[in-house]
Design brief:
Blueprint (H helix, E strand, L loop, with lengths): L3 H13 L1 H26 L31 H4 L4 H22 L5 E3 L4 E3 L7 H12 L3 H12 L10 E2 H19 L2 H14 L13 E2 L6 E2 L6 E2 H5 L2 H11 L2 H16 L10 E2 L16 H5 E3 L6 E3 L2 E2 L2 E2 L2 E3 L5 H11 L4 H23 L9 E4 L17 H10 L24 E5 L1 E2 L4 H13 L3 H17 L8 E2 L7 E2 L6 H14 L10 E3 L5 E3 L5 H7 L4
Antiparallel strand pairs: 1-2, 3-4, 4-5, 6-7, 8-9, 10-11, 12-13, 13-14, 15-16, 16-17, 18-19
Helix pairs in contact: 1-13, 4-18, 5-6, 5-7, 5-18, 7-8, 7-10, 8-10, 10-11, 13-14, 13-16, 14-16, 16-17, 16-18
The protein binds 1-deoxymannojirimycin.
Length: about 550
Amino acid sequence: MRSWSQSIAVQAPCFANGFSLRWIGGGIALVGLLWFIIIHPFFDRGRHPEPPVHDFGPPHPPENSHSLPLPLPEPSESASWPQQTRADAVRDAFLHAFDGYATHAWGFDELRPVSGGRADTLNGWAVTLIDALDTLWIMGLHHQFHEAVPTVAKMSFLTENKFAPFFETVIRVLGGLLSAYALSGEPILLSRADDLGRALLPAFNTTSGLPMFSVNTATGVTRQGWTVDALWSEMTSCQLEYKYLAHLTGRTDYYHRAEHVMDIMYEWPATDGLYPTLWSRKGATPINNMESAKGIIENLLYLSPRRKLLYVTDIDKGFPSRTLEHLSCFLPGLFALGAKTVDMPSAERELHEWAARGLAYTCYIIYADQPSALGPDEIVVDPWPPGQTDGNPLFAGRWVDHVNVWMEEGRPGGVPPGLHEPPPVIDGGALDYRIKRPDYLLRPEVVESLYLMWRTTGDELWKERGWEIFLAIEKHCRTDYGFASVRGVGLNEPKKIDEMPSFFLAETLKYLYLLFVDEDIVPLDKWVLNTEAHPLPVFEWTKWEKAEYNISL
Ligand code: DMJ
């Protein structure tokens, strides 16, 4: 909250645990499915409020809005579209998704975009509604925002028969409420955030103080998740939310509980700033380790063997797995932000800028490579051929080695390895990776990085790439009711999946809108976006807070 570097530190855990996030998502889906099949019919009726009596009807564009320019153009003719018109098209997509949710799933967690049904996939606290509040505000849809507030005002976060996953609930619901409060000043949203923040606090009641996976908000009983130990992303991604809440409410417990997690991290002798991904809640000690890693840039960035695309992967038992997940595509944006805002020697900054550019291009090209122009959720990059491993098969293709050689040779061609931006593979040409998970799940990470690349470099090309992705989403994901995840991105016509995750409204469409809108609505030196893209304001700690929390800045 206090600085750019802090926001980067808070987002970083999501990278280290891309793998674990996938499991979290899978776990939620499985539990949701079992719940839906077995228990849902008994609990469902009458538990949710009816949709509001006022129907959301046709979209209510904000004053001074341009008329919506539908139908959308074919990609070939789309390059000349004015930016503001593109922003309007994104807002129209958001309104379509939000209206579908409001009409068919109001009060439930998610809309089923293919069938027009609805489902509770998180806590049954209307996560799509809360996740979407700040996007409504940012897009100028204040009428819809105010229509939603009474539902949030009447909501109870004390649910006896459910366990709220701490990480997902903090980033989506607590973050969503706080951001909506910060943008609108609507007091009830702060009050609800305070209720929820307090109800989730028992998660921290462990021997070490590292939070449990989930908490029953009515009883305070906690549970572990798919692993007995704590995932780094889950236990650390609560800093922005709890510290802002402490600042707004004056409740010191919020700060101390969250900061205690950071104290454990500060005290851990991390190797090159990399932390183990699994921790024991009992002893606050790591379960696994990454001793072979000497930092993200040095050990986790690789080049693909033929097109020399720069990608990030994880180290599994000492070897690069060569897996690139869509979830990890937030990393280029992170490097771009860091290079712009964190004090560092110029050579290091240059390296971070290169990493940002190369990684962002790869994250974009894995969309552009596909006949659908939508990116897969997971790929595995081909290994380097045996003859090209320079005698070191373990680190073949390691980016930093190639950069060092290029520098020693006097920077031939002027373009560093991994930044050549080869064209997409079309018409069945050979990819230098295989698709492991061919789904596009409406995720935000790639457009998030495109937005941050545009904001930090001013290079219009990032907007063009974002526009291509938006057109593909319109073409393949739009349904009568909203937008659907799809399976089979390598096909001309991927198959729709009956799911519209809340982060599509909270993140994907918000980043696309911010990419195209003329004004800098969320200036990045005044707002920090949490890992669910909820902007929270940068603020100064007061004198008494500095004394209470031992803050020396
Ligand atoms: C979102 O809930 C957040 O971006 C989270 O950090 C990662 N997973 C999803 C989007 O893919």
